[in-house]
């Protein structure tokens, strides 16, 4: 007779860029070690780690959190443990739903070590205030980050996550753009082809025939981020819109353009394009493509 598999103890660690400023105590490795030590002390077995490194607490679409949710729904999980409540997330409505609805629905025990929360003993009354304070922290950090980005933009510093195609961040100053010797010739080729009378569609077709990686595929190759099956299957499929967008970018004239997009709220990751009068444009900040 086959014995039923014992449900797993899920150890959830999370670290965002703003948390990194707190110090080593918040590091992923320290969180994992703390959770393992606690589990062994409480004789909890069948340990499985879930790690979201570089994701803010208001984002519940983070990969390993979603993997945890699926495992809970599939009946694999008996206990979820985090260092504290904020590692689970920083949205008091979402956290309240998890604690009072989702976890009980699937008979999952939740433990937040530093906050002395163990749902086997009930949910403490102060948990609501903890949740609100965690969300306030996220809102305050978001406000400070936006202000910091604006100050840098006004000072003519690059604040984007990735440099425009054909450029790279200066290794000695991440807020300054320099020419990427590998992809810059492609940018020059594009502008020369357009100057010779080629249409954006014809240029895209030629780049595809020459098997030159399109910008997103090149970015995935270099960073490992933003992977999508479509880019993996069709890495050379340049489109007309990509060419047209490059032709209008002021970065190719040596100018820096910031503050082109904003989010609706600090919780939302959806970007809205701002009107041009809201853009922050600094002339002649870097070498333009010749």
Q: What structural keywords apply?
A:
single chain, 290 residues, alpha/beta, five-stranded mixed β-sheet, two-stranded antiparallel sheet, 10 helices
* Residue share in β-strands: 15-25%
SSE string, helices as H and strands as E? EHEHEHHEEHEEHHHHHEEEE
Strand order of the largest sheet: 2-1-3-4-5
Between the first and last Cα atoms, what is the distance in angstroms?
Answer: 74 Å
Main pleated sheet = 5 strands, mixed
Q: What helical percentage do the residues reach?
A: 40-55%
Would you spell out the secondary-structure blueprint of this structure?
Elements: E1 8-15, H1 28-41, E2 47-53, H2 63-73, E3 77-82, H3 85-88, H4 92-105, E4 109-112, E5 117-118, H5 127-154, E6 167-170, E7 173-179, H6 184-195, H7 200-209, H8 215-223, H9 229-233, H10 240-248, E8 256-258, E9 261-263, E10 271-273, E11 280-282
Overview of this protein structure:
Helix content is 40%, strand content 17%. The protein is of the alpha/beta class and 290 residues long. Strands 2-1-3-4-5 form a five-stranded mixed sheet, sandwiched between helices. A two-stranded antiparallel sheet has the order 6-7. Strands 8-11 form a two-stranded antiparallel sheet. Residues 21-25 have low confidence and may be disordered.
In short:
With 290 residues, the chain is of the alpha/beta class.
